[in-house]
Amino acid sequence: MQESSGKTVTLGLAEVAVEVVKKTASLLRATSWKCIHNFLRNSQAVAFSPDGTMLATGSIEIKLWDLQTGEVIHTIKRNSGILKSLAFSPDGKTLISTGLSQRIELWNTISGEQIREYVTHAYGVNALVFGADGKTFVSGDRGKTVQIWNADEEHATATFVKHDDWVNALAISGNGAILASGSYDETIKLWNLNTKTEIATFNAQSPVFSIAFSPDTRLFVCGCADGKIKLWNWQTGEFVGVIVGHSDEVYSVAINSDSTVLASGCADKTIKLWNLQTGEEITTLTGHESSVKKLVFSPDGQMLVSAGANGAVKVWQRG
Q: Where are the annotated WD repeats, by residue (predicted)?
């Protein structure tokens, strides 16, 4: 590193790391978040398009919103139960949705038309996630099942019944190679998406409701029924630690695009933002009147959308 005088200063890596963490923590503490929109009371799922221009929300029907104008682009009518999960493809041109049924729907986000429908192994799909290739997607259901799909094919390409209870949460690593599944059975399983094999099992010691990978692909975190957030380095298998601060079940976790901020939504009606490097609480966001069930950061990390159990959706902006 160069000083203004031109002299070279050599610092140990540990010292540099400490300084970076200190500066990051200070900046994060100084950052405020405020609710800028409170626009729905009938949504159970939310998703940002990868380019950050569209927001999908839904309960029975799905609405696609233009985030620049605040206008509804499409209202998509469904007939397969209350919505549980939404996920955009990496190019944003398609959207998958599922509810309390055995059906998954694939939609064209430009036309709003349905492309295809899939029938799953068991009733009650709890989680969906799109793969990095834009064709692969994964479902987790109440039949203890994880299924891998190709969007162009009618039937699943792989089906795993390895959990001992409902599969509640799914996440895919930033490099698109690793899938994590979390269950009421208190475990998280990691899967290699290329070989379609199980590679590791982690014991969360509490039912798992939500999972997120850090975009830098180093960590994954889970939100649990015991009110704790647990962190692992999935590459080494090392247990990194526990974040404690909520007083009830943690239903949702999300990590921003630069892997500095972790958001958690809880049955205690609060959202907490954490410094992912230190585990320090940055702030608590209040205003929901029911459990916070879903959280999603915008791709640039400047907005956070939350959905409550009563259908209320709030948009928070970083100040």
A: 76-117, 118-159, 160-201, 201-242, 243-284, 285-319
Domain boundaries, position 257: 35-318
Q: For residue 14, tell me if it sits in a domain.
A: no
**How many domains does the chain contain in total?**
1
For the question of whether the overall pTM of this predicted structure is more than 0.85, the answer is: yes
Digit-coded pLDDT (tens) for 193-238: 999 999 999 999 999 999 999 998 789 999 999 999 999 998 899 9
CB-CB contact of 194 with 238 (8 Å): no
1 domain-assigned: no
Condensed to tens digits (0 to 9), the pLDDT of residues 14-48 reads 333 333 334 444 445 546 899 988 866 678 789 99
* Cα angle, residue 123 at apex, residues 121 and 125 outer, rounded to 5°: 85
